Amino acid sequence: MANTFTQLYIHIIFSTKGREKIFPKNHKDEIQKYITGIIQKRDHKLIVINNMPDHIHIFIGLNPGKAISDLVRDIKQNSTKFIKKNRMLIGNFAWQEGYGAFSYSHSQINEVVKYIQGVEYCKFALMVYLYLIQQYRLIFLIIKCFIPPLNNQEEHHRKKTFKEEYLEFLEKFGIEYDIRYVFD
Length: 184
Description:
This protein is an alpha+beta fold.
């Protein structure tokens, strides 16, 4: 083949160290924009990002020439430095050592976006994501809604802890694990 074509959608999840609910809510947008910059600088395409006080969800179009582990390492290291440098938190901030990365098909994009945004009811026109493959790179086109999404992640996590949610992902994707080594 003359060209390489890929379609790789990855949902990345990781927690604050010890699953402490310390992620600075008042700086959420600023930190998410910073992380978006890291993802784009590494030649991946951000689809959606959202976080709760103790963990973060990042859904990307993966550049196959780059390792997920390198991206997660860069996000964790640089966002930690950014949070500390800008004094966004009283006390110490750190991410957990590990992470989860789960792949999805193109037909599942809308459901994953709704899950990460916390949208349980489709009361607005959902973002439409189109991917065009053109000579080794993904071109990302976003058509934004004019009505902001409802964020029901907080409601979701009143019913289910991050630990329960994460273990469900491992089960759903058939990943074998030893509970002693899942969380730090």
